[in-house]
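note to self — DONT lose this again. spent like an hour looking for the file last time. sequence + predicted structure for the chain T wanted, 613 res
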Amino acid sequence: MINSKLKTPLLALSLSAALVACGQGPQQQDASTENTAEQGMQQMQKPVVYQVFTRLFGNTKSTNEPWGTLEQNGVGKFADFNDAALIGIKELGVTHIWYTGVLHHAMVTDYSDFGLPSDDPDVVKGRAGSPYAIKDYYNVNPDLASKPADRLREFEELIARTHKHGMKVIIDIVPNHVARDYHSVSKPQGTADFGANDDTSVAYKRDNNFYYVAGEDFIVPQDTNYQVLGGQSHPLADGKFAESPAKWTGNGARKAQPDINDWYETVKINYGVKPDGSYDFPRLPDNYAELDYRAHYAFWQEQELPDSWYKFRDITQYWLEKGVDGFRYDMAEMVPVEFWSFLNSSIKMSNPDAFLLAEVYNPELYRPYIHLGKMDYLYDKVGFYDSLKAIIQGKAEASELLATHQEVADIEQHMLHFLENHDEQRLASPDFAGDMRWGKPAMTVSTLIGRSPSMLYFGQTVGEDGSEEPGFGDPTRTSIFDYIGVPAHQQWMNGGKFDGGALNDEQRALRQFYIDLMALNSLPAIVAGELIPVPNSAPHAVISFERRLGDQRIVVVANFGKHPVFVDIEPEEAMVGKTLLGTDPLYLDKEIPIKLPYQGVTVFQMGIQVDEY
């Protein structure tokens, strides 16, 4: 229903939790456009990040033996991201692929034939190892290569394939800590390993890379409820690990024997923060929050800085030269903001379009890390994600979400939205929503509410529930520590065809919904439009808002209640109608014409029954 008098269509998108079982996706309408100010936005798109746990993506084995070896449970390879796989990812509107777990990290699997012996399982989490315990920043995980000796070349070829399909490459940088047994076999000539030149007789020195428990040896943490490798035998699993003196643990624990719940597989990096919390480096003047990365870069060229700062600058420059387009920074808030100003300005000088995403959970740090630290994007986890999860679980009212979103209104375009990632429970798991179809209303609101990027986690679009029992990892989250197959994702893989041939009808409908939804990220009002809250008569269960840019207007109405509800929709114009938002399958196959209180509405039919007035 397009009003022919409109130059750009007015859009209304009506969604509900009934979409949870709705196979209908938004049907986009062709729009005639004039040479208006917003027309240039037609060629733009909000970023869509696809996070993939690289070693799990291409694994076709479904053995899923707890604590299983690579041979038992299988592992995916760089080569599995072939043209068919990348086309399937691109269909989701993806602009950036975050290849998680690419860098060489500590692992129990033995690659001694390639000069890479097994790490000590007493300081490795899981058999496959944590991707956040980096062992060599200048090479990649040998698990991921068809020929481990050629692993770096194989990753370079994957970068090229990804670029060929019109997507950019993001990898992790983990600045807060490294593996307890860090040792780079691939570092450039003249590069010293972390800790190689440290004075280990003192707890702290500015140019030390690590902190030390001087005079004490490291002791492996013990716990009666935990057995290394699930109790399976291993020649190095003896409860001992030689480290003298002991180093501070990655989460800041300062004891020679960390607790079993500490990040004991890692050691903390020193950035010139003294043990008393004071800084041993120059501070940025306050006005630098208003200056661009070039001014930040110039400032740091005049300073003498801790050694660790330069090490990470060189690491990121190395990967930029390999063709990597950006970085996701693990636990960025545990590293001082001045370091980020230094690092990110250096990166932007090499690639102004580099995509820089940081894990920051403290809302008080959001603005400093964006403005002073020159981050492009931060997780909107503590605010938006946590509120949305509480609404889905019936623990909070729907109206709270818009209020939460308004708390970051000044920086909302920097706050990346997601429903799943490697740290969070799968949406379909019983401990979260218990039904993959909740992704429809939830992802719609998450994607369309603001100008921020969206992120999808592999398997999310086909309802992966994370229920496998992997070993070190816990069910409800797809394990990042173990060799494992990912069942719903494997159905989309269909034995390596990547055509969804093994999906059931409901999974196909869900994936198509995500394809259709993410396509809306190219609409001008979604890319850059103003957010206007739209009051409704059931704020406890229903979220409604409008996105507007010029003449283009998109209305979103989503029901998070467990029952159908009649809702008055009250825009700025006089309210003239009611919308029935249902959850009962009775409504799913009906395509009743929608009449909302707007003139000239282009409707994305979603199978939602709406009263006519």
